Each structure stands twice: as C-alpha cells, then as structure tokens.
Amino acid sequence: MVPEPVRVLRRWQELDAVWTLELEPVKTGGRSFQPGQFNMLYVFGVGEVPISLSGDASETAALVHTVRGVGPVSNKLVALQPGDTVGLRGPFGVGWPMAAAEGSDVLIVAGGLGLAPLRPAIYHLMHHREKYGRVILLYGTRSPEDILYAGELAEWGERADLEVQITVDHAVSDWQGKIGVVPALLPTLDFDPEDTVAMVCGPEIMMRFTVNALRDAGVEDEAIFLSMERNMKCALGHCGHCQFGSTFVCKDGPVVSFDRVRGLLSLKEF
Amino acid sequence: MDDNEDASVITPDGLQCLLDVLTARGYEVIGPRLRDQAIVYDALSGIEELPVGWTDEQDGGHYRLKRRSDEALFGYAVGPHSWKRFLHPPRIPLWQAVRDDGQMRFVPVRDEPPRYAFLGVRACELAAMDIQDRVLLQGHYADPHYQSRRKRAFLVALNCSEAGGTCFCDSMNTGPDVREGYDLVLTELLDGEDHAFLVCSGSEEGEAVLAELPQEPATEAHLVAARAVVERTRSNMGRSMPQTAIPALLMDNLEHPRWAEVADRCLSCANCTMVCPTCFCTTMEDTSDLEGATAERSQRWDSCFTSDFSYIHGGSVRTSTRSRYRQWMTHKLATWVDQFGTSGCVGCGRCVTWCPVGIDITEEVRAIHDDVSSGGRE
To answer: Would you say the C-alpha torsion B72, B78, B80, B82 has a positive or negative sign?
Structure first.
C-alpha cells in the first residue's frame, strides 16, 4: 500500500490538457509491465489515480504515462515539472492477451485517449511482428486536433505490415481523412472474424457500439477484449470501488473479454 | 452445535474467571455493553458490565431496549456494532509522505493492534468473519491490517438464546447454532435461579483457557437444555430469506421495476453498509499539513451508497439511488457468490433494523421473486 517515489524525467504535451510523463524510480531500477496494465500515481497531499502505462514494455528504464488533466489529481499530474517526484504503486491488473493472440490477426480499435493503454500492445505487436497475422488499427477521435500520438500514427500508417485507419467525428474542410464514428469503419473492413482477436479501448459508449459491430461481423465474444474504467482506490481488489458485476476491474481487469461483461455493458449506471 | 463429550458447565462467576484468564493471557476483552440506548461492543473488564437483564426489540427501522424478567447476560440479539469494527477498523492510518527539498519519501505507519478476545460472537458473526477472511485474506494480496488482528483474536462464541425481530440466519444457513471457527462456545442456560453456561472448546488455545476455569462436567440434562435453547431461537426468527436461486433471480432482473420502487424509499444514507458485518469497502483519505511538508493517507470505511464511490473523470457512474441500491443488493446476494464462493449475507438483520425507513432485504428479494414467478406485471 506504500508508494515508491518516482521522478519526472521528461514531459511533453500531446493535446490540449493531455501530457505524457516519463517517470524514473528514485531508488530502484526500472520495472517491467505487461501491455494494458496501469499504475497508481500519487500527488503529494492530493490523492492517487489509476493511469495506464502507455510506453514500450521492452524499455524498462522509464515508465511512460499519458494523462489528461480532468480532476484534482490529474490536473496536478499534467502540471508536474522535470525533477518533481510523485508516488507510484504498480503495475497492476490484467493486460491485453498478447500471448493468446499469437497466430491470429489482431484488430485494435481505439477511441480518443483510449489509444494510450493500447500503445504498449502496438509496440509489442511490432517487436514480435512475425508471431501475428494481420494487424489492423482503427482510431477514432473527435476532431483532427484531438488525434493522439499523431506523429506515430502517421509513421505506423507508412508501414506495410500495419493497416491504419483514422476517422474523426467532425472536421473543417482541410481534413482529407474519414469522418464518422470508429465503429462505423467495421462494416466496411475486410477481415477474417473467425481468426481475429479484437482489442478495444475508448469511452464506454464507443466500446459498446464497437462490440456490437464486431459481433455483427462475426467475432466471438471470447475474442473481444475491452479495457474498462472504474473508480479505484486500492488496486488490490479490496476497496470495492471498481466492481463491475462480479469483475473487480483492478485485478480481474482492466482488460476483460466481452463474455465476462456481456449483458452488463449496456445497462445504465451499472 | 455438536454434542461434545468434553462439554463443561461454568457458573456466571466462572464467566468472570474466563474474562480474568483472557486478560492475564494478554488479551483485550471486547464484549456487549449498554451505550446510547443500544447494545454495542466495547472493552469489558467485568461481567457486571454486560447488559444484564436487558433485551432488545427489533423490526424494520426499529430498535428499543427492554427489561427482561430474568437476569440473562446474553438475552438479546445483535446490535448496531459488528466485530468488523475491530478486525477491519473504520479508519486505519497507512503512511505519511514527507517532502524535503522537493523530494518525497514515504514512511509506513506502524500498525500494532492489541490481541483481542471477543466475548459473545454469534453464529452469524462467525459466518461474517469467514466471509471477510475470503475477501481480505484469500486473494493474491492479503490485507496485513486485517490479518494481524484476525489471526491473533480469541473468539468466545455464543449459541443464540434470543432471536431478534429482524434475524434470518436460519434461512441463510449460518445459525443460530455455532458450528465452527471458535476457540470456546457458550450456551446460556437459565432456569429459575439456576444460571449456568455450557462451554465447549474448539481449538487448542480454547482448551487451555477452559482448563483454567472452575467447572463441572456437563450432564445429559445440560446438553438437552442447550439444544432446546437453540431450537427455540430457530423457531423464533423474525424474518426469512426466500429459498430460491437468488443470484440468477437478481442478475436476470436488473431492470425490474422494483429497483425504482425501493429507490423511492431509500435515503442512500449508507447505514446498511456501515452496520453490515461483511461490507468491506473502503476509501483512501489524503490530508496534508498547512506547511505542505507532510501528508498522510488513511484507509476509511466507504459505502457504495455515496456519490463519490463510483466517481470517474467527469462524474459518478451511479448517480441514482436506484443504481446504488441495485449495486449493493446484487453484490451482497449475487455477484459476491461469483467472487468469493459464498453469499455476502449472513442473515443478521442489521441492515433491516438500522435502515431509517425500514427497507428489508428479504422483502425486496421476495417482491422480485413473487413478481417474476407470477409472470411479471405486463
């Protein structure tokens, strides 16, 4: 329950109110994590929040977190300067099914900041490209100005072994790309639903519609993985806050297969 | 309760002796006492501090103390406290953060709980401890605060001689007879001027403590009388939980109109979760001094009935009372089974008694059950 002090090495702005922090443990060396896991970050006297790891899991020297400033803690996190220290506990939780997906095609569907917890999975796929079939990334966000990791997305789009499609909800006339919500890309996508593992992260409503589109396309519930978000205080399965049905999102998730939450995702205020 | 060949009988003086032996062995004895017109659990040094000759009257949203016609020491049902407040305390300081030169370091707060001896642990409460063990000890991470308190506690259990108006342990199969998980178990035998306690040990430590007490071997008559006490209690349960597959019933009816109806009455006050002996949710409280040099973190009881409980960026997931009551009850009776292999309810009735508007969990299950069995309302 006691955090470890970590120092901000570098920070850079991604979007309006969205910053990426590179953190380094003050005493111990780096620590490894699985794509999809998260850390609890503590700001002195203010509180602690779960933030997904968004860096490359094969580089353990620094821990990378992309944070949007929206609440009392995250607003302090995005204002941290290099050299500042915060508390860190983690990594926690069950990540993306990288091993189970070997041999299959991988379809990544991200909405908005939901690309952050998926980025370690994308890095992993690229490092072990030969172990996977087709890799498709569908990314949707509100407007061209809200595209996260835009530079990297452009690089990925250049790669022959990665298929990238980006769509925005609305745009002004200089946008040459797609317009529309990300689940709408699925019916037009040519892929093999029986041999595809889908990894989905974004706002809950986006995940709901994406799951519907994936199921309509013929992807099995057991092959659809979502990264859930709920309030978390302990990250150990004891505080009770993160429950979603019988799932403790902190320790049974945050990544869960859809069959585990079937019937619950569509319930209001569940 | 097993008919233990080694059962002994002690007098009320022998019970005082038990308190003395436990104290001499280094235990802090906690037991039922009268306070603020209720029977609560607190430190106990003599049996005269027990609620001698008192009982309670309980119903939905109703609790009154009454005089008994006898001098029973345990002639009442459970009150608003549960042993949870000692094993999983309402507030535990966890650590301090100290900042000097802009650097932060963390100093854990040392946790040195007393060794507790609990006097008068009911069968439902033993069941509740078993459930909290599963939640807090049996996952991949064991709560060290709970563990240090629980492992060292000495439990003097009690076969209930009085069922409360909101009790339903019989229908939850957790009582009223004590079955396992105790060091000693008592049954209060009161017949006119004859006042005695049948005692059996359930552990080595219990056996050693019992050996130090002045006692007589139990006779067949004592054993028969003790069985009669429990059977009378069993037949006097004020409530009963419908005997049906409750997890499926609730999870198949998450949009049932009854949730909105109960929400019209529910004040979302969190009393039910505070008095529940199995509710385990906590939050973290962060404070700092005015200089900004030290900050502290404490763990504190929390409730799924508060708005903050489900807060994520932008707002709470569960804003309505309907969704919070549904979360509480489906967790307690349904998803708890998936998570921990047992219902989260032991039938102690506290949530019914201490609900300010008298919402009754057994009645809520029955309402959905009866409605669904009769084909619904459409």
So the answer is: positive
pLDDT digits (tens, 9 = 90+) for B253-290: 999 999 999 999 999 999 999 999 999 999 999 999 98
- List phi, psi (to 5°) of A162: -140, 125
The CATH number that domain A105-261 falls under is 3.40.50.80
- Give the span between the Cα atoms of A56 and A64, in whole angstroms: 8
In sequence order, what E strands does A129-201 have? Answer: 135-141, 163-168, 178-179, 196-201
B244 touches chain A (CB under 8 A): no
**Residue A44 is nearest to which of B94, B140, B288, comparing CB atoms?**
B288
Contact A84 B102 (CB under 8 A): yes
B108 close contact with A: CB closer than 8 A: yes
Per-residue 3-state assignment (H helix, E strand, C coil) for A186-238: HHHCCCCHHHEEEEEECCHHHHHHHHHHHHHHCCCHHHEEEECCCCCCCCCCC
Instruction: Name the residue with tokens 């979603």.
Output: A244
Enter the pTM of the model: 0.94
pLDDT of residue B140: 84
Q: Is B302 exposed, middle or buried (0-12, 13-18, 19+ CB in 10 A)?
A: buried
Give the pLDDT confidence score for residue B291 in this predicted structure.
86
Q: Which of B317, B322, B333, B338 to mutate to test the interface with A (most CBs of A within 10 A)?
A: B317
What contacts B248, CB < 8 A, 6 or more positions away? B334
3-state secondary structure of A101: coil
CA pair distance A253, B90, nearest whole angstrom = 28
Task: Name the residue ranges covered by the structural domains of chain A.
Answer: 4-92, 105-261
Fold assignment, A4-92: Elongation Factor Tu (Ef-tu); domain 3 (2.40.30)
CB–CB of A152/A166 below 8 Å? no
Q: In 10 A of CB A259, how many CB atoms?
A: 12
Farthest CA pair distance, chain A: 52
Distance from CA of A111 to the nearest CA of B (A): 16
CB A4 within 8 Å of CB A28 = yes
**Residues of chain B predicted below pLDDT 50:** 1-3
pLDDT one-digit tens code per residue, B216-250: 999 999 999 999 999 999 999 999 999 999 999 99
- Residue B193 pLDDT: 85
Q: What is the pLDDT of residue A31?
A: 80
Which residue from B284, B301, B134, B133 is spatially nearest to A89, judged by alpha carbons?
Answer: B284
Which among B108, B299, B317 has CB closest to A269? Answer: B317
From A87, A239, A268, residue closest to B104, measured CB to CB? A87
**B102/A246 touch (CB, cutoff 8 Å), yes or no:** no
pLDDT under 50 in chain A at which residues? none
Q: Which structure tokens are listed for A170?
A: 């609305």
